[in-house]
Amino acid sequence: MTAGWIFAAGLTHLMAACAAATLAAWLSVRRSVAGAAGTALVVALGLSAVWAMAVAATSVDGHGAHLWEAARNLAWLLVVYRLFSADGRHTLVRPIRPVMYSLAAIELFQILLGLLAPGYALGAGGAAVLFHMAIMFRLMFTIGGLVLLHNLYGGASASTRAVLHWPSIAVAGLWLFDLNLYTVAYLGGGWPDELAALRGLALLATVAALIPGLAKRRAELRFSPSRAVAFELVSLLGIGIYLLGMTALGKWLSYVGGDYARVFRFGFLIAGMAAAALVLPSRRLRGWLKVTLVKHLFRHRYDYRAEWLRFNRTIGRAGAGSGTLEQRAIQSLCDITDSPAGLLLGPNDHGELALSAQWQWRTADVPAPALGAEACAFFERHGHIVDLDQVRQGIDCQGEVRIVPAWLLCEPSAWALVPLLHFDRLVGVVVLARPKAARMLDWEDFDLLRVVGQQLASYLAEHAGQDALAEAARFDEFNRRIAFVMHDIKNLASQFSLLARNAELHAENPQFRADMLVTLRNSAEKLNALIVRLSRYGKGSGDAAVAFDPSALARGVAEQFAGRHRVLVHPGPAISMIGHAEALEQALVHLVQNGVDASADQAPVFIGVDRDAWGVRIEVVDAGTGMSPDFVRTKLFKPFVSSKNGGFGIGACEARELVRAMGGRLDVESREGIGSRFIIRLPLQPGDAGGSEPAAQIQQKVA
User: Fold this and answer.
1) Residues 318-358: pLDDT tens digits?
2) Which of 208, 238, 470, 599: disulfide with 624, CB 3.0–4.6 Å?
3) Cβ within 8 Å of residue 171, ≥6 positions away
4) Is the pTM of this model over 0.90?
5) In this predicted structure, what is the pLDDT of residue 235?
6) CATH architecture of the domain formed by 546-702
């Protein structure tokens, strides 16, 4: 080797030793950034630095350099094992332990061979045999290490690969350079000093590849190649074809021999360059390479098996802290796109979309009708996943600009709308929050979100069907309870009959008359209680509609609570409407009673009366405990479901049915810990056009 190559070898190895020692010193006090492999990395970098200094101090083929190289390889083998056993995959790591032990035994044998060989006088033939044996062992170690590295990386989970990406590249780069070095040495029958002089650059590249993985976050280091091509085909077939080609070329050159071998080597190099110059500019080849790279290295962002398993774990999770099915549905979609939060908008009774559930999105200000009836029709017709960033830019793919409301566009965290369709019927829409690593949605996101959305829609539809069956079962239970109520009525009727017969005989007895009054009073109280429990639902009063003042009616309702709770009335302008005053009064009593039950003793309940585009607007507002979106959507207006201990759960249901019977509608807005607002909208006259106002206009007025 010339003086220039000797100088270059010393310089590059000294630079590599400084870089490895510096990184080892930095990592020694920050071993936690590398997880369980932190200590092993420090040892491997330190031994690599010692090996590089030994090469710089002696030569690229020195006896000490080979010994330290074996120690270095053992340390990097330990790094590989610690990296891939840190995520708890014991079932995968345990079977490859024999391979690890075999590779370690190869390097230990190299150390033993290096220690014993200098003590024996070997001739030229013995030295050649020893050299080929050492090179063969080196080849076995590098090939086994690379195959082991690729298999372990291929079996790692998607989240673990984000951490293993850069360390795997670092170790693979070091061993790939050694593989080329040992292959040339084996084929050439001697140590290639010029190529060995560049090993310091390989160590420098290894140190440089480790730095990003130790300094950056996992999300910034995510790498998702296709397993089939990137690992199974490229690594195994690439190494095999390379070795086969190099071996065949070396055998062929050995047959040529003499001075012609060097000429053939340069001729082969020139022929390869000429072939590359002719083939690479081919448009067909470039197109094939582009499609192949996009398809196998960048196309499949998701590990579909892992995503499907995680989806099923999230949906099937049970327990106190698992949340409702709606919340788990949101989480399952958010996990796919790494969204930190999400909302579920479900259809209400008016064909609009209202907030049904939320997951980790406490700051979202969602109006009562979140999306109008036009949005429901759009999603059912197109099933289109809406990219809100494109809508903000004015890009209209299928008319989604018209159905996205202003509150979603003004919410900076809102990222995408995913419809949940079940047999072309909209079950809900999930609003995904923007992930921390912002990116554009592509076709793979759309396909996966669409399939998962259909699956979620089936789960939610099945859940709604089960709720309907449960409600029917509760009605059966109610009918059975009516039998007991009728038994009580029969007992009261028998008691009245007995009282009438005794009155014919003892009507003149003062003591009998006193007992009779007590019995009548108790019976009347029992009958009144039964009448309240057996009130009719949703049919209003059977009396004819009359003109009345809703403000005066509200004041009368407030007076009924005098002495029990403070109810304040804020009357609006003088209004005269035609309707069933008794039915409206009964609905207001139910709503005010709910507000009283939910409020503290000193917190008043407000009744407001005003006019709007509908006609009459009556609000019942309290500052009580409030209700969750899930309770408002699925339980508030269902009979026999109550948040109060001992409640029948029929007050809100009866109030809504009474309002509906008068041609109006009842809306509710509630926040947990803040309070609730019930809004009654009634036409001024029965059959007024205001009661059939389009849903889009209603949404604007509610907002």
Assistant:
1) 777 788 899 999 999 999 988 999 999 998 888 899 998 99
2) 599
3) 76, 79, 80, 145, 149, 206
4) no
5) 45
6) 2-Layer Sandwich (3.30)
